[in-house]
Every structure is written in C-alpha cells, then in structure tokens.
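Hello, quick one for you while I still have it in my head. I'm working through a protein record and want to make sense of it properly. Would you mind checking whether the tokens look sensible for this chain? I owe you a coffee for this, so here goes:
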Amino acid sequence: MADPYRSREGLSTRSAAYGGNSDEVQVRIDPDFDEEVTGLRNQVRRLRNVAQEIETEAKFQNDFLNQLQMTLIKAQAGVKNNMRRLNKSIIREGSSHVMHVVLFALLLFFVIYLWSKFARR
C-alpha cells in the first residue's frame, strides 16, 4: 500500500505541502478519470430521459384514471336516476304487474296441461 489515503482509481489524497499535521487535503486527478466522468454524465443523461418518460406516462395514466372515474360517476348517477324512475313507476302503477305475471303463469300451465292431455290420445 503505497498511498493509504487512495480512495478510487484516478483519485489520491496527500497532506498539504506546508505541514503534515494540517486538516487540508490536496486531490490529484488522473487523466483517465475524465473518461469515467464522461461515462457517468452519459448514464445520468439516460437516467434523466427515463425519469422524464416515466413522468409523462404517469401523467397520462393519471389523466386516464380521472376520466374513468368521471365516467363511473356519471354511470352511477344514471343508474340511480333510472332506479328512482322505476320505483316511482311501480308505486304509481301499483302491484298489478305481479298479478299479470301470476295470471300468465297459470294460463301457461293450463295450456301445457291441456296440450299434454290431448297429445296422449
């Protein structure tokens, strides 16, 4: 270990020139370090582009969800209005429709009974 303060390839630290006990540190930059900085800048640029694309997609999906929520609210309001009208219609007309269904069922049963009686002969 020639340099105990070496942090990474390309960077090394040493004590200040005017005193060995000083808290100041000098940094020497290796020429190969520029390539690493350029590579990191490219990676940061790509990450920024990805983050912008994610932001755009998130905004699009948020708008889509807001539209879907509004559509759902409108559909719920329509169903509620139709249920209210149906209930008013049932109250206004009375329960005669139940009587009509029962009479139809009895008539249908009677017709099937007669048909089965005459079909045996």
